[in-house]
Design goal:
Layout (H helix, E strand, L loop, with lengths): L1 E7 L10 H15 L5 E5 L4 E5 L4 H8 L5 E10 L4 H12 L6 E8 L8 H15 L4 E2 L6 E7 L4 E4 L3 E5 L8 E5 L5 H11 L3 E8 L6 H18 L2 E7 L1 H10 L5 H19 L4 E3 L12 H8 L6 E2 L7 H10 L3 H4 L21 H8 L4 H10 L2 E5 L4 E3 L4
Parallel strand pairs: 5-6, 5-7, 10-11, 10-13, 11-12, 13-14
Antiparallel strand pairs: 1-3, 1-4, 2-3, 4-8, 4-9, 7-8, 12-15, 15-16
């Protein structure tokens, strides 16, 4: 009998012809996340098994609970036999270490050639337990302990407690996206929801020194590090937006400042995404939350690029977004009082129904193409993981 960790896939098991890609990606992600934990991994279409080579189950479980693509995680005991008497002897050995008065046996058998049905196995195992341990009762509704038995083709498994995974798809199985990451509440939540659907993230942040502070930049790095828990690592592109933002402020009618600024950010983000083979842009826009997020504003801003834009929180209200931010531990960082590019130079009365033709006319007042090229050429790149980040001269 060997102690192992058993992983159940949930939604991934519905992928039929593509399941091989999903499972191989999940295995690769788990290997990456557990590269310092010294484990062995094996899998088939029904289950994945992680075998720690040392007694570090708590550490491995913690990491697996933050790995997308996992529906359930169980600490199980593997038996190289499907004989009920052999399985029963191990069940009794394990139950003697437990304190309980009522129990229920639940059986699953992937080996459909096994001579007994799941229900018959459960009844026979229940009989073995009652015969060998005194003062017990079966309770099918609210047992003190649930005895789970799985009989698979090559081995059988016993486990008692189930841990929920965070579900979703394995990160990267659907390609890469570029997250427009600000210091606010919404964009980290949008990033998390995108990772959950199998999108590997890179991120872009616009700073405007001296109008924005180093503290504001460090806040965004902290948010990226929290997202890296799920993404393994995040490449963060940091754009110096000062010259562009000052040119807009000096030359553009103030009610259009935010609209034109967002159009510039979209243009830059699309180029960075294309240069890094990202398929989509992702942001934290929520319909109607601010002036630049009305439907008219979104249309006027979006017209400057061809790349698709995903807005995972577009139809969430603020309370719903805050709830998720608290769950993923980004909320307290997001509310730190450091201004970013989107909160400085905000006009008193920003336009809420901007006209694309007016945007095009106003943009002729600044040499934005050259300013964009300079900002992209000189931008900084950080590779951020959960422990540290380092500057990379990758450009």
């Amino acid at each position: 009998m060997h102690k192992i960790i058993m992983i159940k896939y949930g939604e991934l098991s519905t992928k039929k012809g593509n399941i091989g890609l999903f499972l191989s990606t999940l295995k690769k992600n788990i290997e990456n996340n557990l590269k310092t934990a010294d484990v062995q991994i094996k899998f088939d279409k029904g289950r994945m098994f992680v075998i720690p080579k040392k007694d570090n189950y708590a550490e491995v479980m913690r990491i697996l609970k933050n790995t997308f693509g996992i529906h359930e995680i169980d600490i199980a005991y593997e038996i190289a036999s499907d004989d009920l008497q052999v399985i029963g002897s191990h069940v009794l050995e394990l139950l003697k270490k437990q304190e309980f008065k009522t129990f229920k046996v639940v059986t699953k058998r992937s080996n459909k050639n096994y001579p007994l049905t799941s229900m018959e196995i459960s009844k026979k195992m229940g009989g073995i337990i009652l015969k060998n341990i005194d003062n017990l009762k079966v309770d099918v509704h609210n047992p003190d302990i649930l005895v789970n038995i799985e009989i698979r083709t090559n081995a059988s498994y016993i486990y008692f407690e189930k841990e929920e995974g965070i579900g979703g798809y394995p990160v990267g199985v659907l390609g890469k996206g570029l997250l427009m990451l600000s210091g606010g509440i919404d964009s980290p939540v949008a990033g998390y929801l995108s990772i959950k659907r199998g999108v590997k993230l890179e991120a872009i942040y616009f700073e405007s020194p001296p109008h924005t502070s180093v503290a504001a930049k460090n806040k965004v790095i902290s948010l990226a590090r929290k997202l890296a828990i799920y993404n393994n690592e995040i490449k963060l592109h940091i754009i110096n937006f000062t010259d562009i933002q000052e040119a807009i402020y000096k030359n553009i009618p103030h009610e259009y400042l935010i609209t034109i600024m967002r159009r510039m950010m979209y243009r830059i983000s699309e180029k960075i995404a294309q240069n890094n083979k990202a398929k989509v842009l992702i942001n934290g826009e929520s319909i109607g939350q601010v002036a630049s997020q009305t439907l008219s504003s979104m249309a006027a801003i979006n017209e400057v690029i061809k790349m698709p834009v995903i807005r995972p929180v577009a139809c969430f209200d603020k309370i719903e977004i805050i709830d998720i931010a608290k769950q993923i531990d980004t909320y307290e960082t997001s509310i730190l009082p450091f201004e970013d590019c989107c909160t400085i130079f905000v006009p008193e009365h920003p336009v809420i129904n901007p006209e694309a033709k007016l945007c095009q006319e106003y943009e002729k007042l600044i040499d934005y193409k050259n300013l964009i090229n300079v900002a992209i050429k000189n931008h900084e790149v950080l590779k951020i993981n959960t422990e540290k980040e380092k500057t990379n001269n990758l450009l």
